[in-house]
Amino acid sequence: MPASSVSTPGRCAAKGEFAVFDQDANLSQGVTVSYSLPADQLRPYISTYSLTVVDPETPTVFDQVYPEWPNVRMTVDGDMAACTGPGLLKACNPICAIGPTSHATHFSLAPGRYWTISLLPLGWMRFVGIRACEYADRWEVIDRESPFARFIPLLACDQHGQRFSETTAQLDAQLIAMLEYPASKEETIFKAHCALLDPEVTSVKAFAARTGIGVRALERLSLDAFGFNPSLLLRRQRFLRSLAQFMLDPSLSWIDTIDYQYVDQPHFIRDFRRFMDTNPRAYASSPHPVLWAAAKARTKIAGKPMQVLQPPSEID
């Protein structure tokens, strides 16, 4: 199984509302992020596995992750806390599930090991099966009464001293056993996901046409499988294309990364505030010990720096 591991680089130096990367601030934060693709059978449903390790001598790290598709996060020896949108961080050990998000998720990680299983919309429908909008911008600690209880056995996959590839192989085996029967409308969800990734699809009407269904049917499908209405999904996608460019090359100024669909800088800044609950200057001037490492490692193994930009694999 291929894997990629990158230690975090530095931080950004702000200039006004936009920023450029300070190439000299390449200081280790004691954080390593490793990625792996799942088994072929799982790729329509899961984008990647990732392992974040915070070294024992490193203080608790704080970061924020951009809006994304659902995830299952777990630790066997660490202490993680999170909050989607503004608010106080709350403990989410040892395993939690987060639905699709339209706000940044702020989090903290104490020294330890942290796994993330990144679900695609088809994976949410196959493994969870409840309306994604019910968990939009929400997360919960998984217990035996949770609708996510079937993920609890995944905790046993990470054994002390075990190699990264051995754990991902065990994750594959457990999740393949959970596939069972197909979810409803899988082909339509796949088409909608592909349409959403196309930057030429700029309207809800075009989104519906590419999916092969009517606008009202797309509204229902979007809430069921993607968690948000079609117009918000398109807006989120436009914003994240811009943010991804900056993450891959922080030497660029924000103005160089803005998606062509934005009318002007204030248009982009409004979206930045909407999705990240902050402005570009504040985001760029804050340390991102996990996110900078993750963007590089994820791109190397999956071709895209973000889960939301990764195309789904064909359904067998």
Spatial ordering of strands, largest sheet: 1-4-5-12-7-10-13
Architecture (CATH level 2) name of the largest domain = Sandwich
Briefly note the CATH topology name of the largest domain: Jelly Rolls
Return the string of H and E elements.
EEEEEEEEEEEEHEHHHHHHHHH
Q: In one word, what is the shape?
A: globular
From the alpha carbons, calculate the radius of gyration and give it in angstroms: 19 Å
Tally the helices. Answer: 10
* Number of DSSP E strands: 13
Distance between the first and last residues' Cα: 20 Å
How would you describe what is shown here?
45% of the residues are buried. The two termini are 20 Å apart. The protein is α+β, with helices and mostly antiparallel strands and 316 residues long. Helix 3 crosses helix 4.
Spell out the blueprint of helices and strands.
Blueprint: E1 3-7, E2 12-15, E3 18-21, E4 31-36, E5 46-54, E6 61-65, E7 71-75, E8 80-84, E9 90-91, E10 95-98, E11 105-109, E12 112-119, H1 121-128, E13 139-141, H2 164-177, H3 186-196, H4 204-211, H5 215-226, H6 230-248, H7 254-257, H8 265-276, H9 280-285, H10 291-302
Helix pairs in contact: 3-4
